[in-house]
From TrEMBL:
Topological type in the membrane: Multi-pass membrane protein
Molecular function per GO: lipid-linked peptidoglycan transporter activity
The protein, known as: Probable lipid II flippase MurJ
Location of the protein in the cell: Cell inner membrane; Cell membrane
Gene that this sequence comes from: murJ
Function field: Involved in peptidoglycan biosynthesis. Transports lipid-linked peptidoglycan precursors from the inner to the outer leaflet of the cytoplasmic membrane.
Organism: Sphingomonas naasensis
Family named by the database record: Belongs to the MurJ/MviN family.
Length: 527
């Protein structure tokens, strides 16, 4: 159960970060609401979020970590050659990112226009659109900061110091919450303060990881950038890795742009608030598992332990579904009271809650797929195959675009989230099939036995949530504190019912729990 313990460590810190993110979003809903100022900031924030997913959680980690670990393995655990490779990667990355940041600053107008679909249906004034471009220029430097931080985080993950990297996003959320609390004003002034907080948060993250590396004995010296064969190999892997690991983000970008093209004011915000809740289990489970599985599987493969690598991935899928299926059912059944309890106050109205709830239900249909992408792609990246996930991601983006065009005229702002969910499911199916055909993955008997039982347990929990929502309705529609208390009771009861249902369906047995306790006792340090 080392996988579960590592996920628990990362998950606790990620939970703290996501709770801060919910506080941030709740404050933003109160101070800004769902209007053009909100849409403008969210489009500007999409840029750094996109590159965080591509570089910090995607391309750079996916390409760098296996190569770094291979260097360590080739030199009998000696870190010096691997750190020399990291220094050269840092030198080249710094030059590349500096140039890319300058280009993006110069191209902020077309980038903002493209990501928002020109805000076509909103018909912004020239001053409003200039404001959206201004916010994008403020947030763009975060790209460079978070990409450099991803290299340091990759080194720490390879040294099994997962918690340090997992704690870094807390600093971004602290910066943004501070900006909302101390510098809010009109919706436009508040949106500008939020945008300024983004690069400040990135600088704090970079400083935190640099200090952590120094504490771990890792000191990267400046070098003259040089494209040696190893760096050429790294760069060759990064681009397809970005597309493969960032398929969900690419689909969200397509959906955001389509919403800007075809939907009315506030639609981007409805989709954003729904996605923020959808990202909570994805961050806790999917990103955490992906962070752990990539270095773990690459080390096992480097040691020739193929069977152990496959067993690790089986347990990763099992753990992902155990944690994700109840979240999926909860978001489908209880989306409206969840959003009402968290966001409905200040500028965020009851109508905004209803519209965002429909988007959340649509997003959550694909939640298991979003998480499984993070679990399956390390099976390719650990073998330094970044092209296959890129090819599948490209197909899923095409599916997403076609579904957006088909669904938006029928179900308006619910179309983009539903299209994203279906496209992600297509991506998972292709990844799973490819790994199976190559003999790199096969579902074992334990996984096959547990999946249907976990699904039944989640459905039983959903029925209990449906009934509980009706019983608590007077409290779920009361004051904000009453709503929050009732929501806490509803979610807590749902979680307890799910655990009991897992034992009733025999998805998990008491013997599993006893074995886990014994392993923890054996792993505990002796006095």
């Amino acid at each position: 159960m080392k996988l579960a313990r590592s996920l628990g460590s990362i998950g606790g810190l990620t939970l703290a970060s996501r709770i801060l993110a919910l506080v941030r979003d709740s404050l933003q809903a109160a101070f800004v609401g769902a209007n053009f100022a909100s849409d403008a900031f969210l489009v500007a924030f999409r840029l750094p979020n996109m590159f965080r997913a591509f570089f910090a959680e995607g391309a750079f980690a996916s390409a760098f970590i296996p190569m770094f670990n291979r260097k360590v393995g080739e030199n009998d655990g000696e870190l010096a050659p691997a750190l020399a490779f990291a220094e050269q990667a840092l030198a080249v990355l710094f030059v590349f990112l500096t140039g890319m940041t300058l280009v993006m600053l110069a191209a902020a107008w077309p980038l903002t226009w493209g990501l928002a679909g020109g805000f076509t249906r909103q018909n912004p004034t020239s001053e409003q659109f200039a404001f959206a471009v201004e916010l994008s220029r403020i947030t763009i430097p975060y790209l460079m900061l978070i990409s450099l931080a991803s290299l340091l985080g990759g080194i720490l993950n390879s040294l099994d110091k997962f918690w340090v990297n997992a704690a870094a996003p807390i600093l971004l959320n602290l910066a943004m919450v501070s900006a909302l609390l101390f510098f809010h004003g009109t919706p436009e002034e508040t949106a500008r303060a939020q945008a300024i907080a983004v690069p400040i948060g990135g600088l704090l993250q970079l400083a935190w990881l640099w200090i952590a590396c120094r504490a771990a004995g890792v000191s990267l010296r400046p070098r003259r950038p040089r494209l040696d064969p190893e760096i050429r190999r790294l760069l060759k892997l990064i681009l397809p890795a970005a597309a493969g690991a960032g398929a969900v983000q690419i689909n969200l970008i397509v959906s955001t742009a389509m919403a800007g093209w075809l939907l009315e004011e506030g639609s981007i915000s409805y989709i954003y608030y729904a996605d923020r809740l959808n990202q909570l289990p994805l961050g806790l489970i999917g990103i955490g598992l992906g962070t752990i599985l990539l270095p773990t599987i690459s080390k096992l493969l480097g040691a020739g332990r193929e069977a152990e690598a496959m067993e690790t991935q089986n347990r990763g899928i099992e753990l992902a579904l155990f944690l994700t299926l109840p979240a999926t059912v909860a978001f489908v059944v209880a989306a409206e009271p969840i959003l009402r309890g968290l966001f409905q106050h200040g500028q965020f109205t009851a109508e905004d809650t209803i519209r965002s709830a429909w988007a959340l239900s649509a997003f959550s249909i694909g939640l298991p797929s979003y998480v499984l992408v993070k679990v399956l792609t390390p099976g390719f990246f650990a073998r330094e195959d970044t092209r296959t996930p890129m090819r599948f991601a490209t197909i899923s983006v095409g599916v997403n675009l076609a579904l957006n065009l088909a669904l938006i005229p029928l179900i308006k702002h619910v179309g983009p989230p539903l299209a994203t969910a279906i496209a992600s499911s297509v991506n998972v199916w292709m990844l799973y099939r490819a790994l199976g055909k190559r003999g790199h993955f096969a579902a074992d008997a334990q996984l096959k036995r547990r999946i249907p039982r976990l699904a039944i347990a989640a459905i039983l929990m959903g029925g209990a949530l449906f009934a509980g929502e009706r019983l608590l309705d007077p409290y779920l529609t009361g004051t904000i504190w009453m709503r929050f208390a009732a929501l806490s009771v509803l979610v807590g009861a749902g979680g307890a019912i799910y655990v009991v249902a897992c034992f009733i369906t025999r998805a998990y047995r008491l013997s599993d729990l006893k074995a886990l306790i014994r392993r923890k006792a054996q792993a505990a340090p002796k006095e």
